[in-house]
Each structure stands twice: as C-alpha cells, then as structure tokens.
Amino acid sequence: MTPPTVRGSAAHDAREPGGTTTRAWTMRLLVLGIVLSALNLRPAITSLGALLEEVRDGLGMSGSVAGLLTSVPPLCFAVFGVTAPRLARRFGAGAVVCAGMVAIATGLLLRPYTGGTAGFLAASALALMGIAVSNVLMPVIVKHWFPDRVGSMTGLYSMALALGTSLAAAVTVPLTDALGGSWQSGLALWAGLAVAAVLPWLPFVRRRVTAPGAGVRDAAGTATDGRSATHAQDSAGTEPAREEPPTLRITRSRTAWALAVFFGLQATAAYITMGWMAQIFRDAGVPAGTAGLLLAVTMVMGVPLAFVIPRLATRLPHQGPIVLALGVCGLAGYAGLYLAPAAGAWAWALLIGVANCAFPLALTMVGMRARTGPGVAQLSAFAQSTGYLISIPGPLLVGVLYQHSGGWGLPIALMSALMIPQMVVGFLAGRDRTVEDEAAR
After folding, report:
1. pLDDT digits (tens, 9 = 90+) for 367-408
2. CATH of the domain at 309
3. Looking at the whole model, is its pTM more than 0.90?
4. How many domains are contained in the chain?
5. Does residue 4 fall inside a structural domain?
C-alpha cells in the first residue's frame, strides 16, 4: 500500500518530468539534508566546550566572560529562532535551512582567527544564527513531509544531532593535537561539516518544492495539514486550495507555556553541560583528553535514546512518566558529580547523558501538542524562542558562581535545583491536549 505521504503528492508529481523518480530523489535529498543539518546543530558549542580552557587562555578571558560565552548560544537561539517561520513563509523552509548551513560554515571558519573576544563572539553569533533558524524549522519540516512518521523522523533527526554533539566533544582535542596543538585549527575544522550540509538543500533553493499535501509553498507551516490535504486530493483529484495559517493566540495555551518552560530548563542543563562539564572533570584531576571523552559519552547517550524516546513518546497518551524518569537520572548524576567527580566520572557522564535526552522528548512533544502544520510552526517558534530566553542566565550564572566560590559545589547545587521545576512543567506539558483547543477556549 502506498503511504499517505506519497499519495498526497501524486498529482503534483505526475505533472513533472519523471514525476515518481523526481519525488524519490527529492525525498532522499530531504532525509540527507535533515541528517546533515542535524549533525551541524551542536559542534559549534561542544567543540568550544572541549577547548574552553585553551580559548580562555588564548583570548585572555575571565571565568565570568567565559560564562557569558556559554550563554551566547541560547541568546542567539531565542533572538533569531523567532524569525524562522516568517523567513520560511517568504523564502521557503529549504532555502532558509540552506542559508543557515552557510552561516554556520562561515561563522565556524572565521571565529578562531578574529584575534579578540569581541570578534570571536560575533563570528560565533553568526554560526549560532544559522543553528537557530534550523532548530525551529526541523520539527516543522518533519511534521509536513512526514505527518505519519513524526516520532521516527524526529528520532532520526535527534540521533544525528546527538551524534554530531558527541563527535565534536570526543575528537576536537585529539584532532587539535594532530594539527599541532593550535586551538584555532581545532575549532575551524568543523566548518567543513557545515559546508557538506549545504549541498542537499540547494535544489530546495532553486525551486520551491512542496511537501506532500502542502498544496502550495513548502514545509514552512503555511499549508494545510498533510492528512487533510491527502484526503482532498484523493477525493477530488486536484490539489487543495491555498489556506492561510489560522490566527492562533499561542500565549493563551497553558500547554504551550509549560512546554516553553520545560524546553528552557532542559536547554539550561544542556548548555551548562556542554560548556562546563569537561572543565568540571579537568578541575577534578581528569586529563583534558579524557574529560573530552567523558563529555562525548554524555552527548552520545542521545544517539540511541534520541531514537527510542520519540517513538515511545508517540505511543503514550501522557509523556510525563518519561519526563520524571529522565529527571531522576539527572539528579543522580549531579549528586555523583558533587560527591566523587573523578572516581565515578563515567557513571555520572552516563546518567547526565540520559537526562539530557529531554531535548528529543521536547521536540517530539512540539509535534504532538499541535494538530496542524501552522500550529506546529507557531508552537515550535514560541517554545524554542521562549525556552532559550529562559536558559540564557544558567551558563552565565554557573561561570560567576565558579569564579567567586572557587569551586564547583554551588554550580552543581544550582544544576540540581533546576531539575525539580523541569520535571514539574515537563509533566504538565506531557498531557494529551493541543494548543489549538486551549487557545480557542
């Protein structure tokens, strides 16, 4: 039986030369583009975390300034992420993601060689701008092109994201050593991966490829729901008429707010981990290379779990129990990091890695808490932008506490304390309801 996502565009494909073949290659390119883009959404951050001490020494940064540096990613994600749906409606989601990959490649190539902290921050912001728009658009693209496979495609995307995150953490230090010990070269080499991610999106720039059942435009959140459009085409034999996105007052939805706060708190934990955990281990006496591997272990836990958790989440009526299980792992990992950071380092890295899988769960819930593509676009932009705003103070505060207390006790206590509200709001966000219904009420 032909899947609904294929039937929905049959009429459109038939009007193109070699329609079926064209569509098959389009879908392959789309999956490749999603995977390569996801691989590039975290190396800009974790490669810096692995070399943070060298960058601080090279640029003369204090602990507080380094904390500011680790707060730049969520700030950029909040500021630039909110523009993604509007840009996608105007230029097409594929074109925006392609431009995002170009921005990542350019920023990563330039930032090690700017010669000062201000230039380093500006080039980092350019790369993070590209990451921000791609962050927001990935759930939207998945919802529209794969409406019946949200869980599995979100899992694939999340696996690739976790793989890129852990790969950068694991190999940045050894590659830097192999390149002569220059931290500039160790950071700049990740621009090559971003260049590769540009290529699959080029056909989506040259022509406005529409998602199955999208009717018009593309997977930017401006079209009808894939399943309803499929039904319209099957019954009438024509593409559905253009529909503008409904006016959705997303701020009226309690679920949207709960999901935004959950997203923000898990992002806080993730960016503290990516920015500071290697340094925690190094200060406990763990060698730099091993500390990078421990950070990689934390990140690599997301590879298998990022595939399993979304699939499990889509089969449950309430995702709250998963939220609680991840939170308990986080509390246990932080407790171990405080009591015996070096002795039990591998166990704490594993536990914190499991806790960080709240990210793919949050992405999955974005797709589940809205019924339509426009709803997903609005919820994704709102939850991610608001969430990243919430997460900004966390890494900065950790840097300030570390510098002024002279140790990691207070920062780890802060990380543990934030896990409690994360579990509460995540449980609320996991309830079986949609933002469209709540906003309408």
Report:
1. 888 887 778 878 888 898 899 889 888 888 888 898 888 889
2. 1.20.1250.20
3. no
4. 1
5. no
